[in-house]
Write a structure and sequence with these properties.
With 522 residues, the protein is of the alpha+beta class. Helices cover 43% and strands 13% of the residues. It is built from 19 helices and twelve strands. A six-stranded antiparallel sheet has the order 7-8-9-10-12-11, sandwiched between helices. A two-stranded antiparallel sheet has the order 1-4.
């Protein structure tokens, strides 16, 4: 049995391929980026949730025929080809363009983090790859995309029911679009990580194919499920550990790697507001305060401009919290029992460095009942220039809606807000709980067997997320039983990893020449 079969709550039989021909009215022609078709909705102003194929109420046989017909427009083998276009945008120019909307003095830190290796460069190069993916073959079937589905954007987190799940954990770029884009972003990240870890070419290809094969198997299983069965699917940490132990018994994963997985899960259980409070807060003159750690953490009073409306931030933050509360629903919510204490700027990630992000400390019953919220800027998705403007006018709401569509369970504090910032410019933000049982794999120490297992977990998770909103039956029909698509994506990943190395070389040259300023070590 495949890993997908072992980790799903219940596996169903595969597709029964029907013989009924899809009516011409429902046949989908390959659309250009930004156009809307039966695949879904990507244009601005289009229906946010009710995709066209749902409104058409297609039968199972018609959805199977959609997938089969898509093979004519975009043969599965066509996904294996990658060559840069003659007029391919300068990747350095794309990074410079992104920098224009970011905090100027933090951009060198972003570049410094991207400079570490081709893999860290890839993590910050979502816009570059989006521009490349826009010219690749598409089946014409849309899903809710993560938009930046590289391997470091998967991990553990806690649910409101106090279960720990493995899922996608970054949705800054989420938008409806071609499901292949997420698959290629994920697969290429494993090829690039494998090169960084000095895995052999054969091992790298096997790791990539394991993840794509898991995506295909899991999508076929989802196609055999009912609507609610596919929606409720999830991967709990306990199920993950059982799978790891089984892999140890059949000698596909070492005991050392299994212990590392178990440590990651145990460590994630300790990452919550109480731990952050002990590490990041202290009492000064009878008041709780977030401890400064510049340039990573800067208390809000140290960055406000004297004489501005933010000179006394507490009243403004409390007002914003009241407005944010309305995005959490009309029923009673635990946030009502917390009071605002303090806020600070907090630098995050690799690709996000330079965007505006803050953490807020609130307390509930007493000082021993802390809650940390993260308030993170939401800019336009890097996909929008290729797929069309989001149907949401508020990018924070876009992020929240995409996360709720894709994740098996979501944070009860997930909301959005529009804030007039310290510089007087109004920007969109989303709000979430900061470090609620958050855990991630240590890719810097991962060996090939563990990477193969992790690739399968990520592939299965991505398929589950795509199956919730996309036409899982059409995608499964397109993929089929064989490994034609898997082999094509492995070819693409190797070719795109070569491109990423060329882009990284151009990036390092831009830093060496002084075109870009990079600050390392942070």
């Amino acid at each position: 049995m495949s890993a997908a079969g072992m980790i799903t709550c219940r596996a169903r039989a595969g597709l029964r391929l029907g013989k009924r021909r899809l009516p011409e009215a429902f046949m989908e022609k390959r659309s250009h980026p930004g156009q809307t078709s039966l695949a879904g909705t990507t244009q601005a102003g289009a229906s946010t949730f009710a995709s066209a194929w749902r409104r058409a109420h297609l039968t199972v046989e018609e959805r199977i025929a959609r997938g089969r017909a898509a093979r004519t427009e975009a043969p599965r083998s066509s996904h294996g080809r990658w060559e840069p276009a003659a007029n391919r945008p300068d990747p350095i120019a794309l990074l410079e363009e992104q920098a224009q909307s970011r905090v100027a003095h933090l951009v060198p830190i972003r570049y410094g983090r991207m400079l570490v290796s081709p893999f860290t460069f890839y993590r910050g190069a979502a816009l570059i790859m989006a521009a490349d993916l826009a010219l690749t073959p598409q089946s014409g079937i849309s899903v809710q995309l993560c938009g930046d589905a590289h391997l470091s954007n998967f991990g553990l987190f806690g649910t409101p029911e106090r279960r720990m799940l493995f899922d996608i954990n970054d949705f800054d770029e989420t938008l409806p679009g071609p499901w292949e884009w997420d698959v290629k972003r994920l697969a290429a990240s494993f090829e690039i990580m494998g090169r960084d870890r000095d895995f052999t070419p054969a091992d790298r290809r096997a790791i990539v194919m394991a993840g794509v094969g898991e995506y295909r198997d899991r999508m076929r299983q989802a196609a055999g499920m009912g609507t609610l069965g596919a929606w409720y699917e999830h991967l709990e940490a306990g199920m993950l550990l059982k799978l790891v132990r089984k892999e140890v018994r059949v000698k596909r994963v070492s005991k050392q790697e299994a212990r590392a997985f178990e440590r990651d899960v145990k460590r994630a259980h300790t990452r919550d507001s109480t731990r952050v409070f002990a590490k990041r807060a202290s009492e000064a003159e009878g008041e709780l305060r977030i401890v400064a750690d510049p340039p990573l953490i800067i208390p809000i009073e140290d960055i406000v401009v004297p004489g501005s409306e933010w000179e006394d931030p507490a009243p403004l933050v409390k007002k914003l919290l009241s407005s944010y509360r309305r995005t959490l629903g009309r029923q009673h919510h635990p946030v009502e029992e917390f009071r605002y204490v303090h806020a600070a700027y907090k630098m995050v990630g690799v690709g996000s460095v330079g965007t505006r992000c803050y953490i807020m400390l609130l307390t509930g019953r007493d000082h021993n009942d802390p809650l940390f919220l993260q308030v993170k800027e939401a800019q336009a998705s890097v996909l929008e220039r290729f797929l069309g403007q989001s149907a949401y006018s508020h990018h924070g709401e876009r992020v929240v809606a995409g996360q709720r569509l894709m994740q098996a369970a979501t944070d009860i504090f997930l909301g959005w807000q529009r804030i007039k910032g310290l510089d007087g410019v109004t920007r969109d933000y989303y709000v979430r709980q900061f470090q609620d049982w958050k855990g991630s794999a240590d890719v810097d120490t991962m060996l090939a067997p563990g990477a193969t297992l992790y690739s399968r977990l990520c592939g299965a998770t991505l398929a589950r997320a795509h199956a919730r909103w996309g036409d899982r039956i059409a995608i499964a029909s397109y993929l089929g039983k064989g490994d034609a698509f898997d082999r094509a994506i492995a070819d693409f990943s190797a070719a795109y990893a070569d491109q990423n190395e060329r882009d990284y070389a151009a990036f390092t040259a831009a830093v060496d020449s002084g075109r870009l300023l990079a600050q390392t070590g942070l």
